[in-house]
Amino acid sequence: MTEVKSGVYTPFFGKKDTSILVRGFMMDVVPVTNSRFLEFVKRNPQWRRSQVKRIYAESNYLLNWTNDTTLSPAMDPEAPVTNISWFAAKAYCDAAGKSLPTVDQWEYAAMADETTEDARNKTSYNKDILSWYEKPNTAGNRVHQTPENVWGIADLHGLVWEWTADFNEVMLSGESRKDVSNDAAKFCGSGSIGATDLMNYAAFMRFAFRGSLKANYCVQNQGFRAVKNL
């Protein structure tokens, strides 16, 4: 893990003059890998593919494994684990004395590039992220093959989407064109009303993806990493 120091940032959705204080925390340098999750399920049989309850993980859970405790020969043990539900990711973090990052923690850490704590206004920053979205099958690549950002964290962009603790915090409520906590304000034409950075299409895509999830979903290009409060 590496330390992300306290700071203030303006979240992607909300009023332009609204800033959030993110207190310092520790974050995993890379996403949790296949090999590490394999160790976890060996110690915790209830999270093996054949044992997990469907309420906690749909049928795609660890679908690419050969069996409960064997990775497929085609899988890189040091690639990020995917086909993981939110419940399984949370259980892994809990067992390690850690937690899933909140959206604010994840976005705060992920807005940095190699030299700048907040690189969101750099053309190169958003261009690099969007170029990853266009590449197929990056989830099978080994972790830590891209440069670390200024906090010493790698792969926040470029490998997989990642679970956050409060991914489903934003719910449909109120009138769509007044209440920026409404999912419709994110994922349709009214998105421009609540967005604080209209050019940050990469963030639009992340929030849209989070809004499409349920906690038992297991997606082939989604993994996770853990944080720990200081």
Automatic annotation (TrEMBL):
InterPro entries referenced in this protein's UniProt entry, alphabetically: CTDL_fold (IPR016187), Sulfatase_Mod_Factor_Kinase (IPR051043), SUMF_dom (IPR005532), SUMF_sf (IPR042095)
Domain of life: Bacteria
GO molecular function terms noted in the UniProt entry: formylglycine-generating oxidase activity
Gene3D superfamilies linked to this entry: paralog of FGE (formylglycine-generating enzyme)
Pfam families attached to this UniProt entry: FGE-sulfatase
Sulfatase-modifying factor enzyme-like domain sequence ranges: 19-228
PANTHER family on file: FORMYLGLYCINE-GENERATING ENZYME, SULFATASE MODIFYING FACTOR 1, 2
Name under which the protein is recorded: Formylglycine-generating enzyme family protein
Source organism (scientific name): Chitinophaga silvisoli
